[in-house]
Amino acid sequence: MEKIPIKHSWAEPYKIKMVELLKMTTPAHRKRAIEAAGYNTFLLRSEDVYIDLLTDSGTSAMSDRQWSGMMLGDEAYAGSTNFYHLEETVRDVYGYTYVIPTHQGRGAENILSKTLIKKGDIIPGNMYFTTTRLHQELAGGIFHDVIIDEAHEASNLHPFKGNVDLNKLDALVKKHGAKKIPYVCVAVTVNMAGGQPISMGNLKELRAYTKKHGIKIILDMTRIAENAYFIQQREEGFSKKSIREIVREICNHTDGATMSAKKDALVNIGGFLALNDPKDYEEASNLVVVYEGLHTYGGLAGRDMEAMAIGIQESVSDAHMKARIGQVIYLGEQIKNFGVPITEPIGGHGIFLDAKRFLPHLDQDKFPAQALAAALYIDSGVRSMERGIVSSGRNPKTGKNYYPKLELVRLTIPRRVYTQAHMDVIAESVENVFVHRAKITGLKMVYEPKYLRFFQARFEKL
Ligand SMILES: *Cc1c(COP(=O)(O)O)cnc(C)c1O
User: Fold this and answer.
1) pLDDT at 192 (0 to 100)
2) For residue 293, what is the domain's CATH number?
3) For position 397, what pLDDT does the model report?
4) pTM over the 0.70 mark
5) Whether 226 contacts 264, CB under 8 Å
6) Where is the Aromatic amino acid beta-eliminating lyase/threonine aldolase domain (predicted)?
7) What tens digit of pLDDT does each residue of 125-136 get?
8) For residue 4, is pLDDT > 80?
9) Choosing from 129, 160, 272, 377, which is the catalytic residue?
10) Is 77 considered catalytic here?
């Protein structure tokens, strides 16, 4: 199924011009650091981390061209040259008509949700994402998962686990009526399922269905170029098309998008909302001045918009994407060869350890993925994050914990940052923790924030 060759054929299409030195720490130091951080890797100090796989968000390395672009920042309050460059780039690469910059993805989600959602509306999506679902709920909407069942099984080898189950969507439409469903939120790739792609075929069927019912499609296009790579590698009829062409085709099947440019688009901060409908644009550009800033900067400096415009162009390069995902697969294959259970097929932005199978002696109330992330940090200074019961949070109506089927530890790979030798260190550390896994004990939550608890929750060892 994986057509992607491993070995060295994915080698980087760039060379290194500047380096950032890292602090080396001892296991005793790391034990103290993680205890002080309440066993939450989000609360560690970055200087105590050796290889930082917490997230691929805003952690990528910019190119010399992007850095040069920073010097071209036009910091005018209104009508910055860099905004027009960004707008032109979004139209060129993605094809949307209107662009509103935002400080990052969730800024766009907030404005989009407030623009399109009325109280009591139903928002179907191919699995939830933490900030996306929260903004839908804060706007009065109710999220419904319509991803195919295979996505909830860590070891199911379906090549497009991000696909929407049209029967699940149709059941929602029949139950609530299409008027209650302003849009379907489609993520490319699906972060919470392990960076799993949606196929073009599925998106086309979804477009036909939603057109018939007058429902919009809004993309969460955070990792669209990575999704395009999987379509190119796995879907019939796309092997000769470029990432750029596939990206454009995905966007053509949708009505708008929210973007966290901190991922695909290779910048440290930034995002945007893109729309085709002039009425939606008018409402959204009214709201952006309340929450982000004027519609020609949206919370960003001119230089940030310039770096984003250049990063978007670099992100749709075939050579870049082959190396980016090649590195992720290189790491995943190594970890798999040690017999460690991971989510498969290997996704676009990281390796997801299956904590349920890794630590079968801990039930979900003992936060196995949280405990595993802490153990990995102590072993080698590799920082990962929990994607399981802590990230899932509680049902806002009943206050009960969600019990997600997937209990994962995410090793997220920043773009253009770490070397193949770093990948080897990570794999060896995962193996070491796996060998000694019986000694890992569970955790109890001693502090729980009200929103997005995984960021700031604190734990103690049981
Ligand atoms: C990161 C992310 C977001 C939110 O973007 P931020 O820039 O972190 O605010 C939304 N959706 C997905 C799939 C993401 O990965």
Assistant:
1) 87
2) 3.40.640.10
3) 87
4) yes
5) yes
6) 52-428
7) 999 998 999 999
8) no
9) 129
10) yes
Task: Quote the mean pLDDT of the chain.
Answer: 96
> Is residue 262 scored above 60 in pLDDT?
yes
Whether 20 is in a domain gets the answer: no
What is the C-alpha separation between 142 and 103, in angstroms, rounded?
Answer: 25
- Residues 375, 411, single domain; the answer is yes
Let me know whether 302 and 159 are in one domain.
yes
Task: Of 274, 253, 262, give the one whose Cα is nearest residue 203.
Answer: 253
Q: Note if 454 is an active site residue.
A: yes
The model's pLDDT over 80-95, given as tens digits with 9 standing for 90+, comes to 999 999 999 999 999 9
402 is catalytic: no
Q: Is 263 a catalytic residue?
A: yes
- Is residue 377 classed exposed, middle or buried when 0-12, 13-18 and 19+ CB atoms within 10 A define those classes? buried
Q: Which of 111, 191, 308 to mutate to test the pocket of ligand 1 (most atoms within 8 A of CB)?
A: 191
Rounded to the nearest whole angstrom, what is the distance from the C-alpha of residue 106 to the centroid of ligand 1? 6
Tell the residue nearest (CA) to atom 5 of ligand 1: 105
Q: What is the DSSP string of 11-69?
A: --SS------------HHHHHHHHHHTTT-GGGS-GGG-SEE-S-SSS-SPPPHHHHHH
Q: How confident is the model at residue 163, as a pLDDT?
A: 98
Domain identity same for 200 and 347: no
Write down which residue in 291, 315, 339 finishes a domain. Answer: 315
Residues 77, 338, 403, 451: which is the catalytic one? 77
Is the CB of 82 within 6 Å of ligand 1? no
Query: What's the pLDDT score for residue 8?
Result: 53
| Binding site membership of 191 for ligand 1 (Cβ less than 6 Å) | yes
Q: Which domain holds residue 362?
A: 27-56+318-461
Give the separation between CA 458 and CA 19, rounded to whole angstroms.
33
Query: Is there a single domain that holds both residue 71 and residue 42?
Result: no
| 71 has pLDDT over 90 | yes
Same-domain pairing of 303 and 246: yes
Of 230, 239, 243, 257, the closest CA to residue 161 belongs to: 230
Q: Measured in angstroms, how far is the CA atom of residue 82 from the centroid of ligand 1?
A: 23
Task: State how many domains the chain has.
Answer: 2
Confidence tier at 396 by pLDDT (50, 70, 90): confident
Q: Which amino acid is at 289?
A: V
Q: Is 418 in the pocket of ligand 1 (CB under 6 A)?
A: no
Ligand 1 near 272 CB (within 6 A) = no
Domain match, 135 and 213 both: yes
